[in-house]
Amino acid sequence: MTHYKVLYILVITLLLLGCSENINQSNQIYYSQQSPDYDGQSALYNIPMLSKDQLNEIAVDNDYLNYKEARQFAYTEFISNIDIFYSEYTEEIKFALSTNIELPLKLTNRPAVVFNYDEKPYYYEFGILHNGTLIGTLVALASPVEKQVIIDRIFTEPLDYTSHAFNYKRYIGNYPEVYYGLSSTNLYQQIITQNGSLELTNISLNSSSNEFNFTDFYPNEDLDSMSGEFKENVGVPYKEYLDIINDSLTTVKAWWLDRKNPFDFYLGGGNISDNFNVPTNQRDVISEALNNNDYTDKFFLQNYLNNSLLNTVWSGACGPTIMSWLYRGKYDSYHGVYIPLCGEVHPHNNNKPIGRLFYDYRSNPRYSKMDIYDISHKLDNRLYYQWFKRTDSLRSGDALYHLGLSRGLREATDELYNVSFITLDQAISLMKTTNEPVVIVCGTKAGPHYIGAIGMGYIINKKGKKGHSYFYYMDNGYKTSDENNYYPCWKKTNGWNLHYIWKRQF
User: Fold this and answer.
1) Cα separation of 171 and 14, whole Å?
2) 149 has which bridge partners?
3) Where are any strands of DSSP class E within 373-462?
4) 8 Å CB contact between 66 and 259
5) Which has the higher per-residue pLDDT, 350 or 16?
6) What is the DSSP string of 21-88?
């Protein structure tokens, strides 16, 4: 999250095992049978918020921010940067602050919780309300990795939860795709079957550890290539930065867990109310931040923002899917065969235009590489297979690595494009100057997740200093339902991730 210049990923390798099964949910209810307090707002019934008792049980763990602290810190960060996410409400917010009336944007009192594999909170998902209407979802970190930054993602449309989210605890998985279970020893992945139904299938983690060193995870060949590229671009091998990054984690965690830190005014002082409110001193902090903002710089790759492409989804292993989607934003066809978009006739989609077009490779988690070859040959003339054939199913459930990204892209574009391994600062600047997308490999405690940045936003204050920056990205679908949650969202930039710019060779 700050501009740490290099990379470290916290990962767990994943291995999909077993066959798809229908789960009897009748006796597998994690949520209390008592009706939670939804503040009389019917829209909130669709959010699997934990009860106050469950949240208070989590809150006694002093190694993590409790949800009320996370909520107030996140709100300050959110509203101070509101022009990035919801510019249509910026003036409304400023007016409310200047006249001391109730703020039109609020967060839900309680969040939905995503757990790590030690049964500790990892994410708090708060609903964003505009005058009582649910308009989005804010994802806050329970254990932040940067001072003064707690937001991980902003979904400008509300996350859509299925019944599985109410019947099971939700685990980090390859977030935003979560895994389900009553404990981390028995986990399920949600899939969409070919008949369109949502089912759970068993998965197993081949490591019980929450944290996995990046250098132990990537193949040596990839590490050597990345080190060479990083030294060429930055001047030193990336491994020299690892000790600094490790030290930073410890320092940042201590900063957040110190209840005497100088930013406790975000919290309003004293005890925090169960119900969301914005005390006077917190309003003052937000008002000062907004008044100090000079302008907002938002940049988007326009060729990726057309509705036909945004409603076309490659749904499968995250590396091959995002590379296929980014490719289609630049090229109409692959090896001479036109790749239809949403609203166009697809020969293998009943020859009918539909509201959303899926190139679906996820309906069966046990597909072999030969199965994928056949499906991809039929659906997209083997575009998806161009990268899938380079994945490693043994390390992390079809993980794609550095050289797989590079070689796949070079072959797909007849050597016109390659990916270049770069720092976070370079990613932000080069996206704007080259007009090319950035592939980001996000490190979670479950494994790497590949996303494609097609925009960015940050605020410059009156002293010319750049504030927090966020990527606008697409991925293989934050899979909480079969219909929604496939649109781009905002993610806080993070130097702990890997960044690859699409780079023209000539």
Assistant:
1) 13
2) 146
3) 417-422, 438-443, 448-461
4) no
5) 350
6) E----TT---S-SSPP--TT-GGGGGS-PPPHHHHHHHHT-TTS--HHHHHHHHHHHHHHTHHHH-GG
Distance between the two ends of the chain, CA-based, in angstroms?
A: 33
Task: Identify the burial level of 198 via C-beta atoms within 10 angstroms of its C-beta, where 0-12 means exposed, 13-18 middle and 19 or more buried.
Answer: middle
Q: Which residues are within 8 A (CB) of 151 and not within 5 positions of it... i.e. 6 or more apart?
A: 74, 77, 78, 138, 139, 140, 141, 492
419: β partners: 502
Q: What CA–CA distances, in Å, run from 53 to 31, 49, 58, 67?
A: 11, 11, 9, 12
Strand partners, 207: none
**Per-residue CA distances from 199 to 82, 268, 292, 374 (Å):** 37, 44, 49, 24
Tokens of 484: 């929604």
* pLDDT exceeds cutoff 60 at 417: yes
Q: For residue 39, give both structure tokens.
A: 């503040």
Side-chain half-sphere of 371: how many Cα atoms within 13 Å? 10
Report d(CA 146, CA 448) in Å as an integer: 20
pLDDT, tens only, 89-122:
999 999 999 999 999 999 999 999 999 888 999 9
Distances (CA, A) of 73 to 219, 339, 361: 39, 45, 39
Residue ranges of the domains in the chain? Answer: 14-208+258-291
The DSSP code sequence of 83-148 is: HHH-GGGHHHHHHHHHHTPPPSEEE-SS-EEEE-TTS-EEEEEEEEEETTEEEEEEEEESS-SBTT
How much is the pLDDT for 221? 86
Token reading at 118: 């030690």
Tell me the per-residue pLDDT of 129-150, one tens digit each, with 9 for 90 and over.
999 899 999 999 998 877 778 8
CA-based torsion, 212, 216, 217, 223: positive or negative: positive
What is the phi/psi pair of residue 432, to 5°? Answer: -75, -40
Contact predicate 474/417, CB 8 Å: no
Tokens of 384: 């998806």
Instruction: Inform me whether the pLDDT recorded for 504 exceeds 80.
Output: yes
Task: Compute CA distances 492 → 87, 365, 458, whole Å.
Answer: 17, 30, 10
Amino acid at 283: R
Could you give the CA distance from residue 167 to residue 161 in angstroms, rounded to a whole number?
11
Catalogue the E-assigned strands of 226-272.
Answer: none
Q: Burial-class residue 492 by CB neighbours within 10 Å (0-12, 13-18, 19+).
A: buried
Other Cβ atoms within 10 Å of 238 Cβ, number:
25
Strand partners, 449: 442
